[in-house]
Amino acid sequence: MSTVPSADPAFDAFNIFEETYKTVSSHDIKAAVLIPKRLQSGRHPVIINIHGGFFATGHSLFAPWFHPWLIKMALEQGAILISADYRLLPTPNGIADQLEDLEDFWQWTKAELPSILQDGVPDQALDFEHLLLVGGSAGGYCVSQVALSHPDEISALAMAYPCVDLKDSILSEGPPPGKPTVLRFPLEDIPSKEEGLKWIKEKRGTVASKGELEITPYCVSLSQNGLFFSEVLEHNGVRLTTNELPLERLEAGARLPKNVWIFHGDNDSVVYLHQSEKFVDLARTKLPEINLRFDVAEGKDHAFDMDASVWGSYPASKDAIAFLTKAWLE
Question: What angle do CA 280, 281, 284 make, to 5 degrees?
């Protein structure tokens, strides 16, 4: 196992390893394994995290988008945390490339990672009987897709302000009249449509699985101008079908894990609350047997939980984490 230094003080309580789970065009795509430094020997519950970032940026150890409550939970419960990279859009085949990576990551985690861990850290083991899957924003889409493909392998699913409706008009038409700009960007700071399309052309032919904040304005531009769906999510003749659309998969009979927690701010400026509401209504109709908790945070914008002080003052946070912990570990 390849040890990497703590990329941010947020991860100082962990020993961190990175492993390649697949290679595309000579580019290694990796997963990070975070093991609490004070973890005792034995088998430990597992948390799998899939990062967000407009489908186009971020990475497995990008601290600004790594939920602080998730780090705290891993340390308190003695869990091994696995965080995935994947190809960042735009890619030749759009979202289809990303979904291929996520399935490859899932299979690698279950089939190969246990032996890799045994060789590198022989006193630690993964308890997949207690597996929590977590993702926010674009990562919420990612984990919804993984969960719909592997419902019986997941103890609990947590989705934060998830982008579960890729056909939502904000991605194909831009914000409707009266709505704020995407991510509340000042209009003067949003690149032009032409600049956004130029960025896509430059990036399309390069495989990348780690990104930073500098590309966010281009994603905002493409969404603000109604081009994100056609130019980023779909491409190269690949048209989204039921397999790429969580709402349609639910409607068609796909199942979810038995325990699901979703939370979303009602003032979200990029993934509108109605996306989660559609998903929750459909899940409750189609899967009444699941244990589903849905929290709507009044007045909160996108990614509000990334600020630990804001999250700590949110009235539902304590009960929600208790719900998730019980669902995951019992």
Answer: 80
Q: Interior CA angle at 83 toward 159 and 324, to 5°?
A: 35
Residues 213 and 268 in one domain: no
Domain range for 212: 171-233
CA distance 101 to 85: 9
Q: Identify the DSSP state of 87.
A: P
Q: Residue 80: enclosing H or E segment and its boundaries?
A: strand 80-84
Please say whether the beta carbons of 97 and 87 come within 8 A: yes
Q: What is the pLDDT of residues 256-274, one digit of tens each?
A: 999 999 999 999 999 999 9
DSSP 13-61: TEEEEEEEEEEETTEEEEEEEEEETTPPSEEEEEEEEE--STTTS--TT
Confidence of residue 6 (pLDDT cuts 50, 70, 90): low
| Rounded distance between C-alpha atoms, residue 204 and residue 92, angstroms | 6
120/56 same-domain check: yes
Q: What is the pLDDT of residues 276-299, one digit of tens each?
A: 999 999 999 999 999 999 999 999
DSSP 165-211: -TT-HHHHT-SPTTSPPGGG--GGGSPPHHHHHHHHHHHHTS--S--
Domain boundary among 233, 251, 270: 233
Which amino acid, one-letter code, is at 132? Answer: L
Q: Are 128 and 10 in contact (CB under 8 A)?
A: no
Same domain, 316 and 210: no
52 & 131 share domain: yes
Compute the distance between CA of residue 26 and CA of residue 142 in angstroms, rounded to an integer: 24
Q: pTM score, two decimals?
A: 0.97
Give the bridge partners for 127, in sequence order: 45
**Helix axes of 216-224 and 193-204: crossing angle, nearest 10 degrees:** 120
